[in-house]
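In the previous chapter we treated chains in isolation. Here, by contrast, the input contains two separate entities that must be folded as one system, with a combined length of 612 residues.
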Amino acid sequence: MTPSPKYITGDKAAINEFIDKFDTFLFDCDGVLWSGDHVFEGVPETIRMLKAKGKRTVFVTNNSTKSRQDYLKKLSNLHIPCEKEDVFGSSYSAAVYISRILKQPPGKNKVFVIGEAGVEAELAAEGIPCIGGTDEKFRRDVAPEDFQGLADGSLLDPEVGVVLCGLDFHINYLKLSTALHYLRKGAVFLATNTDSTLPMHHSFFMGAGSCMIPLEYASGQKPLELGKPSQAMMDAVEGKFQLDRSRTCMIGDRLNTDIKFGIEGKLGGTLHVLTGVHKKEDWDKEDAVAVPAYYADQLSDLGLVA
Amino acid sequence: MTPSPKYITGDKAAINEFIDKFDTFLFDCDGVLWSGDHVFEGVPETIRMLKAKGKRTVFVTNNSTKSRQDYLKKLSNLHIPCEKEDVFGSSYSAAVYISRILKQPPGKNKVFVIGEAGVEAELAAEGIPCIGGTDEKFRRDVAPEDFQGLADGSLLDPEVGVVLCGLDFHINYLKLSTALHYLRKGAVFLATNTDSTLPMHHSFFMGAGSCMIPLEYASGQKPLELGKPSQAMMDAVEGKFQLDRSRTCMIGDRLNTDIKFGIEGKLGGTLHVLTGVHKKEDWDKEDAVAVPAYYADQLSDLGLVA
């Protein structure tokens, strides 16, 4: 049986002990630092306090619509101390995987993107050519000639060897059908992440996984996922930051992504905060997908230190 | 062990015996009568022959984009003898279910549609009000104010009590997010059908199920399916045509919809034709979803009669 998570809110001794256990903190962003564009009270001060104590703070996000540069801007605007190197997003993770691990043969190295500018920017930074994405040519209704051209292959780019699927606010029938045809021709199927929902304004919208799932359903293939909880992402984070996993803690609001990511990555600890998607009752039930080691009402509760 | 299906192509005695066993033939359309706009050779003659022998011919289709009227037009254009009453589509099945079985309370009887004009026409014919569907207001990119308005409910119609999902060539983020919010507010979740793909031009495109699956994934709810192989559809067909199931045969090209539909409906027989999605090897494998009683290379093989 998994032991119950330790509740540290308001318990100064427990908080000090918790912070002392780790050198590096990996933070999920949405639901931990902010909700939409609203930063949670005390978050910038908490990050500053951790940095002042010599801790490394890394922001590990599944949001694929933003590049690391975009994230840096957002963090700075919200007065959260951060450098570009401290941001690790699922688009970046996917781009690194494609360029350094997958290594497609020449003539097959283009990526068909379902996603927004963040994916394109990270692919470009790794020197990977891509089509689809934000291209206006794909942001339109499907036409009769598309059916013919996709079926006979004349509308397909023979250099596409990968379909990469992230969150796409402009998802449509044409993009999905085009991606399906590349998959049927043998393209490698990757997903930045498979979160089913996107929390915004205290509600839930369609997440990256909900943009990808039609392709899984229609093709019968499952994508390799590069975001949390995929250990491909953990390996990339570890490789980049040379971290000691036993002295690293993952902080998040989702059991099935953040907490699972930390546990499967054999990190020294996981902290669940109750400002996002999952609540106490989600790990209390018998079939909980993952149980954190610690939990707190909110991130800024860590501020109660000596 | 299920006995192997009997192959009747070219076997005059077997074909005569097959035809004599049934009074009513239920035909799937795409993959049986035609592919896209191309009617298979000999199909009109075969239907005419069956009618001349006093058989009832009913066209049972999962294609939700067309109304019965649209289907009648298509069948007539392809010279397949048919009357409007002989057509039974999944949109019609859904409309009948909503109006006659579901019976939503007044003030909750509107349907939010993901789908094309066929769904709207069948709902209108049953006197059910609907929104969404082909309305241009939903055929656009999602905007920041949509996120706010969906989250706070100001963009939601309080009279919507049902989300009905069919094949939508104009599927987009706004429609899916709107439907998700209705589901989260307790709307009944229905699908015209859940076919993952749409066969066209000898290839496969996104089917109705692939338009619906993001909602299932994001909401965690499964829709009640009104098309084949749902027995809700079989009950409706039986109710309308007063047929003797033991003297009825389902003819189709998909094991998981058509053949399963006939077997679970306890029809007298099922005939699989090899002009569509599934092939011989699909029922030969151990975990085949359904095994037909008869099979033929093509529908017009029935023409070889005395």
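The radius of gyration of chain A is 20 Å. The mean pLDDT of chain A is 94. Compare these points with the single-chain example from earlier in the chapter.
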